[in-house]
Amino acid sequence: MAKAAGLAAAQIIATVFALGLTVTFARELGTVDYGSLARMFAILVIILVPGSALQVATVREAALGRMGHDAQCAATLRRWIRGLLVIFVAVTVGSILLRVQLAQAMSVNQVWGAALVLPTGALFMVVAVQRGVLQGLRSYRPVGISLVGEQIVRLALGLALIAAGGAVTGAFAGTALAVVAMALALQLVLHRRLGRPAGTPALSKLRHLVSTNRVPIIALTLFAVVQNVDVVVVGHTLSSDDSGAYAVASIAAKGIVWVSIGLGLFLLPEATRGIAAGRDMRYLLLRTLGMLALVAIPMVAVYAVAAEPLLRAVFGGKAPLAAGALPWLGLAMSLLACSYLSVQFLFARHHWRFVWFLAAAAIAEPVALLAGGDNLSSVAAIIVATNALLVVVMLGSAFASDRGQPPTAFPGDDDDLPSETESV
Which of 56, 112, 326, 419 gives 20 to 30 Å between its CA and that of 266? Predict the structure, then answer.
């Protein structure tokens, strides 16, 4: 338990470093260039979600011994990594060939920076599987170190490459190189932990993990789209100054979503255990939402009365251009954070039809932004409206009674597999 708590602490420390990285890069690059970097990171965040879900699935398989033990586990892992590296190479070649089109889609001028985005996401899948195996084997220390180390390396390499004249591409290349460094370091740890691969891999098909976890993967990916697509769309619809300022304000507002992710780490396992025991756990969701409100309400209040000086002091440059939009973005992200907790609770109840509403929001938001987001105020209004409608649906689904309707398995789940939270 103490080791698991240490891993959670490492995640918090890594998040703090990530926020520091955001502020540092915004100041080093300036508002306009940081807007380009933020759009690339927004796409990367969406791509990383399936990797995170894959990590959870790998934890389960490793914890249950289904990957084999020691040398056999190493053989299973080697097969999986080889498959992922094939995907990485294919994605890299495609990204290089289509780098101009990718840059246009992301609304950035840095074609080689845009070419790095998809390969970085593909390579993160390797890191996710490596971390998942170590977690499943209760080797929490190297996982925690890698979480913090990744952010430190990102910052150090990014700043070094910016200083060398790399600008936005250099800043993003620091992230790509940090993922490479973590993959190599974790592989060394795994080699020492498991030994040389030997024997027949216990699990030959990585796609089995994806198939049996497709509902959480799809749901969380759609959630990431709703959370991040606005930064990309605004880069196409507004001026460089306004889109850069919006990217900075968006980062400031989305801090509350990270709080909800932390609360979800508590909500999901506790709700899962209670529901499995036949208890009504809606009170727990309500209590967790109350904890979120303790952070969200003061945050929105501060943004409402001090947005301009706050943006100027923290980010500098032309960030204050988004001062009028920041309070509304804070409200919108608070609503989205409530939706995230509702999604976690619906996972605990083994519901899945809410995915259709997430898909509708993921489609409606960029369409509405393209149609009516011609200034920062209208963009903020659209984001608030979209997230308000989404939270009504998500909370309504979460608090609806299950009386007489026991939870069923997600489509594709194996009946003999425990829930992710039980095995983790």
Answer: 326
Q: Which is more confidently placed, 290 or 271?
A: 290
Dihedral angle computed from the Cα positions of residues 282, 355, 60 and 212, in that order, rounded to the nearest 10 degrees: 140
- In the chain, what percentage of residues exceed pLDDT 90? 40
Tell me which long-range contacts 310-313 makes (C-beta under 8 A, separation of at least 24): 310/252, 311/245, 311/248, 311/249, 311/252
Let me know: does 122 contact 84? Beta carbons within 8 Å: yes
Encoding tokens for residue 211? 């198939």
- Nearest Cα residue to 70 out of 209, 207, 201: 201
Statement: residue 3 has pLDDT above 90: no
- Compute how many other C-beta atoms are within 10 angstroms of the C-beta atom of residue 251: 22
Domain ranges for the chain: 2-209, 215-423
Residue type, 81: I
Single out the residue of 146, 155, 141 nearest to residue 128, CA to CA.
Answer: 146
Residue 409 binned pLDDT confidence (cut-offs 50, 70, 90): low
- Whether 106 and 118 have beta carbons less than 8 Å apart is answered as no
Helix (H) or strand (E) holding 75: helix 71-97
357: Cα within 13 Å, side-chain hemisphere: 21
The type of residue at 26 is: A
HEC states along 281-340? CHHHHHHHHHHHHHHHHHHHHHHHHHHHHHHHHHCCCCHHHHCCCHHHHHHHHHHHHHHH
Judge residue 183's burial from the number of C-beta atoms within 10 Å of its C-beta, 0-12 exposed, 13-18 middle, 19 or more buried: buried
Answer whether 28's CB lies under 8 Å from 165's CB: no
pTM of the model: 0.77
Q: What is the mean pLDDT of residues 83-91?
A: 94
> Could you tell me if 63 and 132 are in contact, meaning their C-beta atoms sit under 8 angstroms apart?
no
Do 347 and 274 form a contact (C-beta atoms < 8 A)?
Answer: no
| Amino acid, single-letter form, for residue 279 | R
Angstrom CA distances, 343 to 14, 127, 261, stand at: 24, 26, 11
Residues 6+ apart with CB under 8 A from 220: 49, 52, 53, 343
**Both ends of the chain: CA-CA distance in Å?**
11
Rounded to the nearest 10 degrees, the angle between the axes of helix 99-106 and helix 111-136 is 90
410 pLDDT higher than 90: no
Contacts of 55 (CB under 8 A, 6+ apart): 128, 129, 131, 132, 135
| Gap between the Cα atoms of 385 and 366, Å rounded | 13
- Which residue, chain included where needed, has tokens 């060398």? 164
